[in-house]
Amino acid sequence: MSVLVTGGAGFIGTHTAVVLHESGRDVVLLDDLSNSSNEAVNAVRSLTSPDLPFVEADAADQAAVGRAIVEYDVDEVIHFAAYKSVSESVEKPLAYYSNNVGSTIGVVQAMIDHGVSRLVFSSSCTVYGEPDEVPVTETSPTRAVNPYGATKLVCEQLLADIAAVSALDVMLLRYFNPVGAHPSGDIGEDPSGVPTNLVPFLMQVAVGRLDRLNVFGDDYNTPDGSAIRDYIHVMDLADGHVAALDALTANTGCVAVNLGTGKGYSVLEVVAAATEVIGAPIPTEVVGRRAGDVEQIWADPTYAAEILGWRATRSLNEMLADHWRWQQQHPTGHKDSN
Ligand code: NAD
Ligand code: WQD
Predict the structure, then answer these.
(1) Strand partners, 229
(2) Angstrom distance (rounded) from CA 239 to CA 247
(3) In a domain? residue 224
(4) Which of 30, 231, 257, 291 has the highest count of CB atoms within 10 angstroms of its CB?
(5) 34 lines ligand 1 (CB under 6 A)
(6) What is the mean pLDDT of residues 180-194?
(7) How many domains does the chain have?
(8) Which domain holds residue 125?
(9) Is residue 338 predicted with pLDDT exceeding 50?
């Protein structure tokens, strides 16, 4: 029996594949490489097994997913495959709905066709929009504030609807802000083009690829005026997926779970911590707020501890040190691996 990891060549998928392998599971990666590369697959193989199967396919192609399920005797699925850029989703909403909802339908249809019932789905804290109060719990109101977030809410709803009338059991994992990298420095976040997320941008400034970091706003109603997020180490997130698969054997239906640390850091606190970890100043400039940004959000991780027996353990400094190691070893990402 094995676990199918769609989007398995991406940032979170690669790290989760390594941890799943360490947990004793047989892992099959499926990815269309639309935002990743064969080098990422090879890096996973070097950390796991040279024979780790990789299927290059669109997750929306239910026949291709079905063939992978049959060929590798798949009995559980983690569905990471999606487009994830908020700004791009505003420019190309149809592409986002088509890919993110279409791939989820393709995966679920293939699972139902072949009697596979356990699914972990990548959702996001973006489903909470601008929260009324922090920390957010799984019962906090959800709202879409951009097309990307809307695709996550649509997928959550369609999975709940299907789980209600079928054997499908689903964990909707709502990730907060994943950063960091595998401690080996062999895999990490590999954004194409100029990064939009804080830590990848900051690391590219530190490594000399970009001139300076723009801090988007210092006039928020927070202690230092910059916005607050719940950054979580990607290895903690990967552990959370193993715990979610284990918990699915005991839970039926469709359950949403926050994967965050429960602690928020401001942009300026992240910059200060990164400066310490890297040991050199990071050129920054405070500019205006970025449109659509929320002021502050962090998770209440209580339910994850209860239902998954999981809690994030890695510190912000560990996230930044591991991200920095990856960035130094691979200044231009996985293509340095050749
Ligand atoms: P990523 O872009 O690094 O990985 C996604 C992978 O999916 C890529 O390798 C891409 O090539 C692949 N892919 C996209 N569409 C596909 C399709 N139709 N068929 C097959 N493969 C396809 O992104 P990530 O950061 O690893 O995110 C993984 C999941 O987690 C996504 O669903 C994302 O929305 C969600 N998420 C990410 C974050 C974050 O900040 N990184 C936060 C919350 C949720
Ligand atoms: C973090 C903070 C920025 C870049 C996004 C998605 C969300 C989820 C996680 C997928 C904010 C500030 C950033 C920069 C800055 N992804 N910042 N200068 O916006 O919290 O969440 O990724 O599901 O859906 O919206 O993450 O890393 O972009 O920003 O000052 O160059 O850093 O304003 O306060 P965000 P982020």
Answers:
(1) 265
(2) 12
(3) no
(4) 30
(5) yes
(6) 95
(7) 1
(8) 2-179+232-260
(9) no
